Amino acid sequence: MSKKIAQTPADPTLPKTPVTIAGKTYNLCLDLGALAEAEAALIAQGHNVNLLYALPNQNLSNTQIVFAAALRKFHPEIMFEEAKCLLTIDALYTVALKIQEAWKAATPELDTTQSPPQPGA
Questions:
Q1: Residue 94: per-residue pLDDT
Q2: Could you give the CA distance from residue 84 to residue 81 in angstroms, rounded to a whole number?
Q3: Under 8 Å between Cβ of 51 and 67
Q4: Contact 69, 102 (CB under 8 A)
Q5: Quick check: is 33 in a domain?
Q6: Count of Cβ atoms closer than 10 Å to residue 108 Cβ
Q7: Could you give the C-alpha distances from 19 to 95, 97, 115, in angstroms and in order?
């Protein structure tokens, strides 16, 4: 198994959601693996991040955090604090909607026609 080299391009098969801020397009990735990787890296850098809490609780602070984490996979050159600064009031609602769109694209629909497995079955 080969190791991923820093600054190599992201896997092109990962789901990406483009969002344009101040005329520049960025790709968000809300794939669970990509988010877990981003969260671990941000925590290692000393940031207090909990994406499991932040994703469904979309407020100003959480939108900044999720946006910065979702950028990381396709834009590793953008640091966390820099990403948060990209999110201006002009772009806030667009980004919040794109986060919702990306999250829906990254999470499969729950099959409600199947019963959950029973313990011991």
A1: 94
A2: 5
A3: no
A4: no
A5: yes
A6: 7
A7: 7, 10, 38
Whether 23 contacts 99, CB under 8 Å: no
Read off the pTM: 0.76
In a domain, 111, yes or no: no
- Report if residue 63 sits inside a domain: yes
Specify if 7 maps to a domain.
no
pLDDT of residue 31: 86
Domain of residue 96: give its range: 21-106
- The C-alpha atoms of residue 93 and residue 75 are separated, in whole angstroms, by 21
Question: Contact 52/37 with Cβ under 8 angstroms?
Answer: no
**Structural domain count, the chain:** 1
At 27 the three-state DSSP class reads strand
Over residues 29-73, the pLDDT tens digits come to 888 888 899 899 989 989 888 988 888 888 988 999 999 999 999
Which parts of 25-107 fold into alpha helices (H)? 32-44, 51-54, 60-71, 80-86, 89-106
Within 8 A by CB and 6+ apart from 119, the residues are none
